Amino acid sequence: MTAPADRRPVEHVERALCVLAHPDDVDFGSAGTVATWTAAGTEVVYCIVTDGDAGGFDETPRAEMPRLRQAEQRAAAAAVGVSDVRFLGYPDGRLELTLDLRRDISRVIRQVRPQRVLTSSPERMYDRIGASHPDHMTVGESTLRAVYPDARNPFAHPELLDQEGLDAWTVDEVWLGASPRADHAVDVTDVVERKFAALMSHVTQVSHQPDGQLREFVTGWMRQTARTHGLPDDRLAEAFHVVFTS
Predict the structure, then answer these.
(1) Does some domain include residue 2?
(2) Residue 231 falls in which region: left (phi positive, over 0), alpha (psi -120 to 50) or beta
(3) 188: pLDDT confidence band, cut at 50, 70 and 90?
(4) Model pTM?
(5) Contacts for 231 with CB less than 8 Å, ≥ 6 apart
(6) Could you give the number of structural domains in the chain?
(7) Is 168 contained in some domain?
């Protein structure tokens, strides 16, 4: 499925779907990129697989956490121009690679009919273990299996077509975040304030950090990403491994 090294993503797509494990995953790794897409007129949809109930750093009752994190994710999405946010409601921290999960992601792909899907890498990043949460890798692998072969095969998960009327759909590009083999960087310098607005919407996840610490850490991370991919020293970037499906 990987394209030749000199192949590049298309400049613009009509629709993109981001499939991530937890509320806030898309914002830490990809909110700047999403902001560039929506600014260019791409319709972006978020699909968040878990309910986020295992997150947080205070005494908030666990039963309240899914509701809070859904509201935070919707606010974060709005900050980068996304209004369609869907939650699959799987338990946080307990994801497994199952046919049910593949089917549920395939359903969203067939509903949204995106040319591009963004998700997490299914490969473990050993030099930055925090990026390789088991839920992240499970969602990445499940999404890749949903892209190929499930969503494009009318005979896979036949209930999607026979009972729900969802025709098969082929996704052209998959962008994998937190990948040990990232080969494409997006300059997000000009939209970085929108990214930070999205991140700060996740109050239950970031409010425990001292003022400025999160911004300093994420800025340094994006600056190093830009340098690694050959951008000037004053630029900030997010990086992905782009996989082409044909």
Answers:
(1) no
(2) beta
(3) very high
(4) 0.96
(5) 185, 187, 237
(6) 1
(7) yes
